[in-house]
Every structure is written in C-alpha cells, then in structure tokens.
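Hi R.,

Here are the chain sequences for the assembly we discussed:
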Amino acid sequence: MRMNKIVVDDMFLTTDMPTTAGSKMLEGYNSLFEAEVLTRLKAAGYTVAGKAKVGEFGADLLGETCYFGAEYENEVLQYPAAVAVKNGEAEAAVVFDVNGAPRRGAAQSGLVALKPTYGRVSRYGTIPVVCSGETVSVIANRGADCREVFAVMAGHDHKDGTALPDSMTEQGKASVTKKNKVAVLSSMLKGANEEVQAKIASVSEQLAKNGIEVVTVDADIIAYAGAAWNILMCAELCNNVSRYDGVKYGYRTQNYTNIDELYTNSRTEAFGDFLKSAILFGSETLSTENYQKVYDKALRVRRVIRDNMVALLADCDALLMPAVSAMSYDKAMVEGDKYLPYKENFFTAPASITGLPVVVAGGVQLVGNAFSEDVLLDLAELV
Amino acid sequence: MERDVLRRLCLLNQLSLTDTQKDEIIGFFADRDADTATLDAIDTENVERMVHVMPVLTVVREDVVNQPFSREDLQAGAPETDEGYWCVPRVLD
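And here is the predicted structure of the full complex:
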C-alpha cells in the first residue's frame, strides 16, 4: 500500500518548522531552504507529519544528548524517530545516520532501517557533521516501506558534490549479483550480550530456513573500524561545528565584553559535554603532533577495512553483525557513561566508515556491497 | 594528556571547561588514546589514504547567476544586526 505520512529527524532543514539538530546552539533556527530529500518526497505526495528529536548534532547513542530532553520509557532510552513509526504517527521516518543512532534505534525497536550506499541520496539541506560517512536513511515497519521511500529519495543531485552520478549508480547496480549466502562476522560478536547474540542466531536460522547459506568467518580487521571511525568522526565534527560562533546565526551568549568572550562563551554555553569531548578529541587528532600518526593512520585503516569487507562480499550477499551491544539502554547505563557512543560505535562503524549499505532487520545488521540495497532488503523480508 | 595541552585545545576551539570537566576529558582522552593505539597493529605501509569512500572526483557544474536569498532573509536569524551588518563587539581599540 502506498504510504503518505513520514516523520523526519531534526537534522533536516525545513522551511515550515525550526531545525535545531538537538542543540541549544540552533534553538529556534529557521532555515531559508529545505533538504533535497524532503522536496523530492513532497513532490511524490508524501506529507511530513512532524520532526523527531535527535541527540546533539545526531552524534550520540539515541538522542540522550538532545538539549530539549532525552526520551525514556520505563527508564529505557528511546530513539524518537523510531518511536514515531512504532506508534503509528508516521509510516516511515527519514533520518540522518551520522553516527549509527538510527540503526541502533531500529534494532532496539524491532523495526527495519536502510542506510544506503554513501552518495546514493543527496545530503543537500542536512546539517553537516561527519561529511565523509553520514547518510540519509529510512526507518519503517517493513523492508518494503523502506524500499518505497528510498526509491523516491535516491538519485543524483547537482547541489550535493558527493551525490553519485546516475550512470555510476546504474553501473554499480548492474554489477550486483545475488549469491544467497550470508557471512556472520565472529569478530563483531565480542561485546554483544547474550540477548544480542541470540538475535544473531535467530536471524541466521531464519535465513537458513529460507534457503540462504549462512557461514561464519573470522575477519578480525573489521573490529578495528570503531577505533578508526571515532578518529575520523571527531575530526570532521570538530571542523563542521567550528562554524557556530554566535555571530551570523545560532545562540549568542549574553555574557561577553570582547570578541573572544563572545565566541568562547557562546560555544561553551550552547554545546553539551558529549559534543565538547568530540570537538576536543577531533582537534587533537588534527594537530601537527598527531595528524600523521592518528588522523592519517585512520584514513589508511579505512581503506584496509573497506578492502577486506569488499573481499568478503565477493563471496556473499551480506555480512551479518550486531547493531548494538544490548537490546536496550537503561537510564543508569546511559547517565553513568557519557562516552558510551564511542564504545557502541564498534558495531555501527564498519558500515559508517566504508560507506557500504546496511539494512537493520530482526535486531541485527546486514552490511552489503555498494549498490546492493535491493538484495539487502530482500534478505530483510526473510527475517 | 597534560593540562597544558587541554588548555591549548580549548583555546583553539573557543571552549571553556570547569575543573571537573577537565578531569573527565583527560580520562576520556586516555581511553581514546588507548583505542587509537590499537590501530598500530594494522600494517598500513603502502596503503593509500581513503578520504572519499566512493570514487567521485570533484564535481564542476555550470555557473548560473542567481540570488536566492535577500540580505534581510539571511540576517533574520542573526543574534544582532544593525542596518544590514552583523554586529560583534569592538575588535580594535
């Protein structure tokens, strides 16, 4: 059935609602233009039912750093966009996967999420945070719904320099062949609790019942993606949020007597602790002392990881791995470790750092080769 | 991390931290540094950096003259303006 009601997360610029990126820095900010994906969805007949809260600049676990308040239900952290879909307020959520939050939210809510190949959907009109990895994504109840929304959003956009040319997409799609085989990455199971490991086993069983060969592979190298991603993520975040200084738009402190105090106090008062940690770490990785041994190293590790994943995917349709360490984050756990997102990135980083597509279904991730969204969504329908 | 390095990073990034926040950040950096050190196990000799995950070259498009937004529109969200200018405290004495 054709869907018509969507919710978007607060990382997309809208002209009829404020856009805050979950930050005090952008409280009440009204954009003069809207995100390209929203223009496309509206033209196709979709209605934007509202905006869902995000963590500050979409970089946290599930929105716990949102200036406007985190969402907890029975002391369990909730991802607002997933809640909107789950409660039927919208048939799908269009979300911005900056640091894995939409995938964690979908996994813990029992929903399906699609993070497409990097560059297949325009990022024009999104709040830039981690430009080399962030991807417009979709969450829905079923894989078919994700497919429908993705089909409308995808395609080249001349306003986004990272949007892939249609010719490249067509060529890439034509090179994808179905192998009816999925590989469980044993190296990615460490750190996942028993409930998550049971999800992996259950999805594997379900796929096998449907004629998919399921094998287990060791690929220790992929377990390094989290460490490399944290470096690149923070470095890019640090640069992207340097534009917020209290001058042209956004929050300005009332407490200043000179220009340095205006900059420093505006940023100090508006940014939360998690964001500050990312800014400072990102800045350190880009310093003269660390650039080669940290940032440059992470860029080279990114290639090694991608090459290894692509090599594994030459023989199978998807790499099966957890999306989270636990099927819920309780309040004590979240509030007791404000740096938890850096640890949870262990699971979401392989797809983030490589730009490969991933589908979340049955509470787990299926990461595929570039342009294999249709194959991944076919697999999602089996679990 | 030494406090002096943290002080320099804060200065560069126009941030100010309380003593408690400084202690937390120093602990956080210790974790990150340990995490980063694990990457030394990967041989990246002769491996090219991967800045872009897809092989897209810089896109050049035709120059088209337009003026989508007025000065008034652009300054509508500014904290303080005066006669079409953004206002900041006096920079030169």
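The longest strand of chain B covers residues 81-82. The mean pLDDT of chain B is 91.

Let me know if anything looks off.

Best,
T.
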